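Data availability (excerpt). All sequences and predicted token strings are deposited with the supplementary files. A representative entry, Cytochrome b561 domain-containing protein, is shown inline so that the format can be inspected without opening the archive.
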Amino acid sequence: MSAYQDLSNERDTLVAALEEQTDLQNAHPEEAGIISKVMDDLEEQLAALGEEEAQDDQAGLSPILEMFTRPQLQTDGFSCPASPGGEAGDSDTDTDMDYSDSDEDELNDHLHYQLNLLSFFNNKYLRTSKTIWKTITDLCSDIMASATGVPQEHPQTIEAREDEPLLGGPGAVTQRDRDPIYRNLIKGTATVAQCGILLLVALVWAGIFSHPLIFFSAHPLLNSSAILLQVQAALILQPTATPQQKLLGTRIHYSLQAISLAAFVTAFTIIEINKGDHPRLTSPHGIFGLITYICIILQALLGLVQYFLPVTILGSADAGKRLYKYHRHFGYSLLILELATVAAATQTTYNVDVLHIPLWGVLVAAMLVVAGVGARIKKHKLGF
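Structure token line:
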């Protein structure tokens, strides 16, 4: 398949995806926010594809034009071929080859005609030569891979550079067409994040269940479970690429976040009841906790408005889409704040005297979560 056919097929695929997304928008008006964003992404890819084709055409024609127009081939617009007995323009051997001004003009016109003709056929035949060159280079790469044992990357295995994560190679955290969505939970550095969040939950739950359960015990159990759900919600959505994947990933994301929000609200209610008449905000954990709960509510409201109610509250779906990157920024920052609140909980009197959950263990778990989730962040989704 030629490079021209590759670009043509890619364009056809994007157009088909755009048409399919239009049908989805008509069938699911309640998903207008995310579907409109996906359509904008497809239109941007089509525009980028057009620019790539234009650049390929210009790059392919430039060397040929340079060959016909470089100075050593020109003398007042055209150069005479060298004779067998001497250099071009040698008066001793080319006296019979002198041209009049009219002959030079005629030859000049002929040269321009050939250049125009070459430009006309360039697009058709240049792509064939590029395909042959690509086949040769691919074959050389395969030979080198066989000789060295190091697999070579091919264009079809490399995702667009705008999807490159902060850490890792391009495509390392992009969901393939045939991949089930649950694989997003272990794809790339997700395993690192999973180890971290499971370690955190294990430390909290082991500390709680190693002592007699009381009314307060539900507070750390629910909070740690809610953070676990939030990490899964982030990991499931990060690698999605196609419109269908993004739609399914978003639905799973907000479902997990809704359960997580319910757990946080319940945990806050329990600690408020447990405190009774005792003073509040007397420790860093209490202060961080209140700030964290407020931020969780604000983040949930932001996600609700931008996705479900952009037209009703903001006036348009575009206004909702402009909030997406802030929702992502706020979400990642909130995760760090939640982990800091858990770390601060290890310094409370109850943990120091009763539970004995180690600070170093919580810090190690938090660093694994931040590293695993943060490494999969795609830069363009944050507005970079």
